[in-house]
What we know:
Elements: H1 4-20, H2 29-32, H3 37-43, E1 56-57, H4 73-85, H5 98-109, E2 120-123, H6 125-137, E3 145-150, H7 155-161, E4 166-173, E5 179-180, H8 182-188, E6 193-199, H9 211-223, E7 228-231, E8 256-261, E9 274-279, H10 286-296, H11 304-316, H12 319-341, E10 346-349, E11 356-361, H13 372-383, E12 385-386, E13 388-389, E14 398-402, H14 407-424
Parallel strand pairs: 1-12, 3-4, 3-6, 6-7, 7-8
Antiparallel strand pairs: 2-9, 4-5, 8-9, 10-11, 11-14, 13-14
Pyridoxal-5'-phosphate is lined by residues 61, 125-127, 153, 199, 203, 231, 233, 261, 263-264, 269, 274.
Amino acid sequence: MYDRKLExxxxxxxxxxxxxxxxxxxxxxxxxxxxxxxxxxxDNLDLKPxxxxxxxxxxxxxxxxxxxxxxxxETIEAVRASLEQGLFNGYLPSxxxxxAKQAVAEYLSHNGSExxxxxxxxxxxxxxxxxxxxTVLADGAKNHNILIPRPGFPIYRTLAEHIGVEARYYNLIPxxxxxxxxxxLESQIDGNTAAIVLNNPSNPxxxxxxxEHLRNVLEIAYNNRIPVIADEIYENIVFPGEKFVSxxxxxxxxxxxxxxxxxxxFLVPGWRLGWIVVHDEFGVFDEVRKSLNALSQRTIGSNxxxxxxxxxxxxxxxxxFYEFLNNTLARNAQVAFEKIQNAKGLTPFMPQGTMYxxxxxxxxxxxxxxxxxAFAQKMMExxxxxxxxxxxxxxxxxxxxxxxxxxxxxxxxxxxxxxFCNRYYTM
Length: 427
Ligand SMILES: *Cc1c(COP(=O)(O)O)cnc(C)c1O
C-alpha cells in the first residue's frame, strides 16, 4: 500500500545522506593538463590602461576586430547561397563533403603539388586540424615528444601536453629571418620524437622560409624518418616580392600533414573551417589516414553550412582580394617598422608575411623592468597600448605587434611606444 509519510521520510533521509556523504568530482588529467599559455601570462599581468588615452590592443590575432579588413563579398555570398539552398543542414561524412574536399584540393594544388580530394579532411578550424595531427602521431603512453618552434604559437604545446606528449623546442634564429637553427633542431631529435611541427609563414615571427631553407629542414626530417606537421594557416599571406613555398610542393619524401583553413586568408576566423591535407608519397601514412578518419568521427566533422559554401569561397574569391590583404599588411608592417626603428632600445624585425611583427626589447637599456612582461604591463599603464610579450611565444625580451589594425591606429600606437621607450631608455 502506498504510504506517503514513509516516502517523505525516505526522501528526507536520502537528502540527509547526500549532505553528509561528500562528493568527489575532479576534472580529468587530460583536462587539468590543458593549458592556455597566453591566458596564463596575460591574466597574471596587472593591465590597467591610462584613463586619459584610448586603448589600442596590438595583441589580438583576429583581423576582423577593427573592421578595416573584411571578408570578400564573394565569401559572404557563398554562405548566403549555402544557407538558402537548404542542402547543408544535416550531417555530412565526418571528414567533409566530397565537393568541399575537392574544392580544397584544387585550391591548394595551386601551391605546386597535386592534391586529391581524398587527401583532404575538413576540421573545425586549423586548431582542430592541429589537434588531430598531433593526436594521431604522438602517443603519451609511449613517451613520445614532438618538436615545436621557439618562438612559436603556443597551441602546439597545449595540444601535446594534454595527451601526455612532451613538447620540445627547437630554436629559430632572429638574425637569419627566423630560420630554423638546423643544428639545434637535429640535436633535439631522439628515438621518441614523433613529429616535427613547422609553422611557415610564422606566427609570431612573420617570416616566410625560402625553398632552400625548407629543403634543409625537410632533409633533417627525412634522414631521421620523422614525419612533419606543417601549419600553413598563413599560406600565401606574404608581402609583394615574396613567394610562399608549400612543404608539399617539394616532394622531399617526408610524409607531411598540412594544416590550414579559412581563418586568416579569408578573414573569417570565427567560421571554424580548417583542413588537413595528407601528403604522402610512399604510403607511409596508410594507417595514419585511417586513424585520422576515426578521429574526425569524435566530433562528427565540421560546420556543414560553411562546407556548403566552401567551393564558391575558394573558387570565386578574386585575386584582387588576396592582393589587397597582402598589400595592406605589407604597408602596415612598413609603417610599424619605420616608426619602431626610431624608438630607443627597440629593434623591429621586418616580417615577410602574416599579420605580425616581432620587436626585440634591448632589456639592458631598460634596467627598471625585470622582463618583457613588466615592460608590456607598464606600457599599457602609461600609454594604453598592449602587445603580447614574447613570453607568450616562449622567448623573452620581445613584443609581438599585430599589424592588421588600420594604418592610423598603427601610427598612433607606434608613436606612443616610441615615447614610452624614450622616457625609460637608459644609456
Ligand atoms: C590563427 C592560427 C591558427 C588557428 O586557426 P583557426 O582556424 O582559427 O583554428 C593556427 N596556427 C597558427 C600559427 C595561427 O596563427
